[in-house]
Amino acid sequence: MIKFPRPIRNLIDQFSKLPGIGPKTAERLVFNLLKWKHTDKADFANALNELNDSITQCSTCQNISEKDPCFICSDKNRDKTKLCVVAESHDLAAIENTGDYNGHYHVLGGVLDPLHGITPDVLNTNELVAKLQKNIITEILLAFNPDMEGEATMIYLKNLLEPFKKSKVTRLARGMPVGSDLEYTDEVTLSSAIQNRKEL
After folding, report:
1. What's 38's DSSP letter?
2. Cα 9 off chain centre by
3. Each residue of 79-90: pLDDT tens digit?
4. Pairing assessment for the beta strands 64-65 and 56-57 based on DSSP bridges
5. Strand order across the beta sheet in which 79-86 lies
6. How far apart are CA 64 and CA 55, in angstroms?
7. CB 101 within 8 Å of CB 137
8. Main-chain phi, psi angles of 141, to 5 degrees
9. 3-state secondary structure of 147
């Protein structure tokens, strides 16, 4: 069996850590990178370094950002009485790109998945409760994938939010197919789901 040089093996191992990337795909990616010009590889490496140096987490909404607070939390034209709770930052981006929502956000940092060790204590639920205690929120939109984990998370959050009687809890309309991901849902479908959201 051929052993690749250590730098190649190391990079294959790093690519294999990405979701959906197995050892063979990682190997193809690395050998494709080897064909790149030196300047292109340097740009790629610099882009990775920038993730460490320039990206932070917004202390208000938990979104990834270059500044704290992020540009959404800093925007005075947004409706502070509406709060959209999403699992991940890319879900926030999907909703923001529709242009149909003008409230604030809260990124939970995942969904409940006990089989993989994701329980309420590892999610940003305490920050969510603290936000609701400090601010007047009239509507909380729960925007999660319509799969088993997303549904379980919404049920948990609905119970957690029970004491906040003045806040109406809504969810995305059922226009999204069950089992689909927010990240990959087209903007027309997602826009319709936001506009036709229902109270839980």
Report:
1. H
2. 30
3. 999 999 999 999
4. antiparallel
5. 103-107, 79-86, 139-143, 168-171, 198-199
6. 7
7. no
8. -95, 120
9. coil
> Which carries the bigger pLDDT value, residue 70 or residue 174?
70
Tell me the pLDDT tens digit for each residue of 151-162: 999 999 999 999
SS3 of residue 61 by DSSP? coil
The predicted structure's pLDDT at residue 186: 76
User: Tokens standing for 34?
Assistant: 């080897």
Read off the amino acid at residue 197. R
First to last CA, the chain: 58
Annotate 3-31 with b (16+ C-beta within 10 A) or e (fewer). eeeeeeeebbeebeeeeeeeeeebbebbe
Q: Residue 21: is its pLDDT beyond 70?
A: yes
- Which residues lie across from 79 on neighbouring strands? 103
- List the domains of the chain with CATH numbers: 6-54 (1.10.8.420), 58-199 (3.40.1360.10)
Q: Give this prediction's pTM.
A: 0.81
Longest dimension (CA), the chain: 66
Which DSSP string corresponds to 53-110? HH-EE-TTT--EESSSS-HHHH-TTSEEEEEEEESSHHHHHHHHTTT---EEEEE-SS
Q: Give the tens place of pLDDT for each residue, 178-200.
A: 677 888 887 767 877 787 777 77
Report yes or no: 29 and 18 within 8 Å, Cβ to Cβ.
Answer: no
pLDDT of residue 173: 78
pLDDT for 172 equals 85
